[in-house]
Amino acid sequence: MNVTMLLADSAQVADGKLYILGGGWSVTGPEPTPSAVAMKVGVDSHEFNVEHHWELFIEDADGQPVHFDTPEGPQAIEVRGDFSATAPEGVPVGTPVDVPIAVNFGPIPLQTGARFTWRMVIDGEALPGATVSFTTRPAPEALDEE
What we know:
CATH topology: Immunoglobulin-like
Mean pLDDT: 93
Radius of gyration: 17 Å
CATH class: Mainly Beta
Number of strands: 12
Oligomer: single chain
């Protein structure tokens, strides 16, 4: 398996395809805005008809999970799901299949002037291409002080 990830303003999956709006950015903010992570998982034929589990989470520049205060205490942003792939009818045996996944988020209050990485893990394994990083702009008052 291999993974391709892209940051976007929004994304959705329809008819086996990713539909991406405002995709391909790597700098955001400083104010929290809605965003999405669009992912394309290339599944090799030997991995067909098997249930695969994926997890998506955000880390800071030190590789630590980002936590937010909630009424239940600090919580990390994590999204999980499952998928399986099957060979499409009429394609040559051994043809890999792409599985599109889109995860949309409301405004996330991230630290300004910092670097973050969305990381995807499939079946507990980090795969090539399974990260996408971005930076939040400094707050305007921080720019005025410079």
